[in-house]
Amino acid sequence: MRVALLGPTTVETDDGTPVDIGGARVRMLLARLALDPGRPVPASTLIDDLWGAQPPADASNALQSLVSRLRKVFPDVTLEPGGYRLAITPDDVDVHRFERLRAAGRFDEALALWRGEALADVREAPFAEPAAARLDEARLTAEEERFSTGELDVAALTLMHERHPLRERVTGLLMRALCAQGRQSDALRVYEDVRRKLADELGVDPSRELQEIHLAALRGELTPRTAVDRLPVRLTSFVGRDEELVQIADRLGQARLVTLVGPGGAGKTRLATEVAVRHPLHAKGRVWFAALAGVRAAEDLAGAVLSAFDLAFGGDPLRRRAEGMNRIAEVLGAGESLLVLDNCEHLIAAAAEFAGDLLRRVPNLRVIATSREPLAIDGESLCPVGPLSVPDGQADVSGFGSVRLFLDRAKAVKPGFALDESTVDDVRQICRRLDGMPLALELAAARLRSMTVRQITQRLDDRFRLLTSGSRTALPRQRTLRAVVEWSWDLLTEEERELARRLSVFPAGADLAAIEQVCHHDALYVLTSLVEKSIVDVVETDEPRYRMLETIRVYAAEQLEASGEKHEVVDRFRRYYRDLTARWEPLTRTSRQLEAIAMFEAEQDNVVAALRGALDDRDVGLAADLLGGAFWYWLVKGDNERAELSVREVLALGDDLPADLSATFRAMHLIMTAIPGTPETAEAAAVIEECVRTGAAQKHPSLAIALPMLAFLSHNPELARREVARAAASEDAWARAAADWALSFILVDEGDLDGAEVARDRAYEQFVAVGDRWGSAMTLGMKAAFVSHTGDNQAAIELYERGLDVALELRSQDDAVQQRWRLAVEYARSGDHESAEREVAAAEEYIRGIGNDQMSVIVSYAKAEVRLRAGHVAEARELSARFKEAAESSTVLGSFVTEWSAILDARIAIADGTPDEAEACVAAAITTTSDRGDMPDLATVAELLALVRHAQGRDDAAARSLALAQVIRGRLDLGDPDVRHLVALIGEPERLSITKAEALQRIRAEAGIST
User: Fold this and answer.
1) What is the DSSP string of 672-715?
2) Are 50 and 10 a contacting pair, CB within 8 Å?
3) Helix (H) or strand (E) holding 663
């Protein structure tokens, strides 16, 4: 969601769809929160800012009511200890984009954001006038700065001057513009008018600055002059780094030494050059650039800087440094100056001494240094320069800095290259695997002269051989990726190299404890030195994590291989993660679940690497332990594909697997591959008995859910009941909750809906008690579905919303998407089509954020149903066609694709007045649901058949189908408005005294399907 305040208050989704905000007071609240995006605003402040000196009698409740109304259109408003927070980034608000662009010198883009007066429609709010005044002043200042740094437009400046006749900076700019056109007399007339108005209206004289411009105009000095450009030639466009440009410009205003620190290839030199060219001193010819990369000895440093000044010195070699410093200080001290010292890392001590000495001698000097480690002198302000932003599964990647840079350079060598369906996956992979590092991306783009983008992607494992086509004019160490990394590596001490090569075993980085266990028992000081030298990044979390960029890690892995230490270090690495996952796995089902999930999220790639290595080396015990430690986390997070693949690979290791783990993995594999579908009864029973015989059922709590459900899905109710009883007798509280959860399925199948509800309630209470959000979210979703069948849509909506909150807290992608799309459909069933559309949009936005294309298929199905229920039949038909096309490659839906498509197309055909077309679709759905014995789904399709028969004018057959649906489920789905309407038309169906099995046969007969 994006909020615009530079004009009337508006909200739109990321794809540009406008969002209706509501009443004036809601707009005021949104505008006030948007001025502090992502930060909590105290309730007392909001009350003062919205009502001022006359708040309502119950201000707190009035504020809460406003927040509730705002959440209907803007769900991301949260209550935190510090107050109410609008959960958006500053860049989602045009006010903050304006400030960022203005600070970066991008004045045209900044001013283009304005659509009128700031906060135009909320000016009645007490907070609005001061905020609007500040924004109006910022806008005017930006207009002035645009003219100060760009072309002086006489016409535009004249209009500004007429609107603000006493604004002296505008007057000065207009005078300069007039003089530049040879209109000196007009410039002097403007000055005289302003001088008179200042005296008459304010009783003051013009400022000193304006008087100096007047004097310069009188002397004829205000003619355009081209400033000397001493910076390196910019042969390519500058892409990305907008935030860094703002940050460095801000720091240069506060500190006299700003050092850009980062690894080789990060683009420090180009960034420093861009900062320097945008600095006001550049237009005055007061910027110098000293390239130090070619300097080999400390004593030659002053001479290298002097060469940037086009100065030379001779005389006694012993006196050269002192003489050089004097001459450098003399040039820089002639006025305000900016000096760029580029590539200081190999002369770090000498560069630090030089910069410190120069800053003491020349008070008006500012220095930008680039280095792979800080100069570490007083007054230094550091600006880390890391990778450009990299896509992480998002569908739209065009806005990421790394993608923008790659595309820019790609088009330069291969005109016509574009980001489209044929290239986007490869571009995404190139940017991600090259860490978003500018030099690597430029080298990869250069390869497009002779390779396709797919060929580049396929050769990234051999990146040092691939990326060798740099500019011939660049320094040797900047022409190939290997040369860039080797330059950094050669600057390390032997102790630093040892730790660095051992760190290469951690693909996801590691905390200090892991590094000391695997690499070096006392690693902290060497580690911090590697951080200082930009070999290792530190990620600040609760516990700092240390990681290498992938390119550096690949090089370090080569060094580890050559050292002869690899086997020993890798063995320690794998065993460390075996022990870590074993320690944390039980906590994934307790009140420490979020803490455990955070650990697994951070260590995911390390655990996968350890498991992959154990599988490749056929270390059976280690592979089985690692899978056992990570499996439940993958299931909770919805990473079913990884879980299923890993189980299959571990089972392929054969008879060497421990018996209990083999049985457990066979059970998990059977249930994962059976859904959707029906496991073979005898095979399922054999696997369950093996889990009991080996003690796995008692040893692994996850089987408390898996075994009863495996028996249930394979149509073995007696065995399912036995395994429920076993789990219910467990000493593990989570296993007892799982037993009730599984029992609810059995009771529903038996037609005991009240008993099933009691079992679900017990399961939910127990999951909450042990702190398992996954079980809680699943149970809430089930409760919501069954409450909806009673006709209480609102109660179901509230349950889905609670389930969604829990799933989002858990960061379980599958559960969050499913809760949200079911919530959207429930809103549509209740008749609240606006809320249904909002939930679909929120689900789509969530999926774009996590980059899960498979889950987008499910949401597209929900979208079709939501649009259909809102009466948009043609659009629903089009969405159905798109769903079927996308679902063909879906691993989420599997065999459900045919069934879901048939149900959706049947609903569309009924709405479109073609019931005979709907009949064929319903028959297909009844076939699949009855074949697998899925009674709840079969009941839904039986109700759909009743709707078809009614549309065909066969109400007697419609009544029979409703009666059969009532037997199959135990009740009709009165939460479906179509079913409610049909019952109102033809009456309640008769109660049939038949079994579910008989009802199944009859409904197949009603649909014309052979039994």
Assistant:
1) HHHSSS---HHHHHHHHHHHHHTTHHHH-TTHHHHHHHHHHHTT
2) no
3) helix 659-674
Longest CA pairwise span in the chain (Å): 115
How would you classify residue 318: left for phi > 0, otherwise alpha for psi between -120 and 50, otherwise beta? alpha
Q: Are 854 and 892 in contact (CB under 8 A)?
A: yes
**Cβ–Cβ < 8 Å for 9, 138:** no
Helix (H) or strand (E) holding 436: none
Q: Using a cut of 0.70, tell me whether the model's pTM lies above it.
A: no
The Cβ of residue 249 has, within 10 Å, a number of other Cβ atoms equal to 17
Q: Locate tokens 């028992």: which residue?
A: 521
Contact yes or no for 172/209 (Cβ under 8 A)? yes
Paired strand residues for 12: 2, 18
Distance from the first to the final alpha carbon of the chain: 53
* DSSP of 105-122: T-HHHHHHT--SSTTTT-
Taking the chain (1011 residues) in runs of 10, the rounded mean pLDDT of each run is: 89 83 88 90 90 85 88 84 87 89 78 88 90 90 77 82 87 87 86 89 88 85 67 73 84 89 83 87 84 79 78 45 74 84 87 90 89 89 85 74 83 82 83 80 79 83 69 52 78 90 92 92 88 83 83 87 93 96 94 92 92 93 94 87 90 87 92 73 92 92 92 90 94 95 91 92 95 92 92 93 88 81 92 92 79 73 91 91 77 70 92 92 90 86 94 94 92 93 92 90 88 58
| DSSP helix/strand/coil, 288 | strand
Extract the tokens encoding 375.
């100069």
The encoded tokens of residue 377 equal 């002198």
Polymer length of the chain: 1011
Helix extents (H) in 220-316: 242-254, 268-278, 280-283, 301-308
* Element at 158 (helix H, strand E): helix 154-163
Q: Which helix (H) or strand (E) covers residue 546, if one does?
A: strand 545-547
Q: Which of 537, 534, 435, 527 is nearest to 481 (CA)?
A: 435
φ, ψ dihedrals at 695, nearest 5°: 85, 5
How many Å separate Cα 606 from the centre of its chain?
Answer: 21
Tokens for 973?
Answer: 């789905």
Q: Can you say how many angstroms the Cα of residue 448 is from the centroid of all Cα atoms in its chain? A: 29
Q: How many Å apart are CA 549 and CA 508, to the nearest integer?
A: 10
- Residue 243, classed as helix, strand or coil, is helix
CB burial of residue 216 (10 Å; 0-12, 13-18, 19+)? middle
- The angle at the Cα of 816, spanning 815 to 820, to the nearest 5 degrees, equals 115
Q: ∠ at Cα 677 (672, 678), nearest 5°?
A: 95
* Contact present, 266 and 377 (Cβ < 8 Å): no
Relative to beta strand 287-291, strand 337-342 is: parallel
